[in-house]
Task: structure prediction
Amino acid sequence: MKSLVPVADVESLPPGNARTVEVRGRRIALANVDGRFFAVADRCPHRAGPLGAGYLDGQVLHCPLHGWGFDVTTGACDVRPDQPVACHRVEVRDGQVWLEFEEG
Result:
């Protein structure tokens, strides 16, 4: 069963930025692309770099360790198409960013 979990205030993450949030023991990279929020797994499949600590260029979030880029709208990797990251549905309401998360 899926549920929505509040993870951040909208104003705490300005456009063009990303950061890591922890949800039920799992780390998620949250990104603000021109006022639209996206969430992907925080772990780069290359060397486990924390994607939330990387830099956002448009809708591509770059790993801080080796620069692999991930499209936050799809999870696709620009260097290795066979190494995408998982995406999570995000909803914004009442000034809060909510993340859809699997129960259990």
User: Anything to note?
Assistant: The longest strand covers residues 2-9.
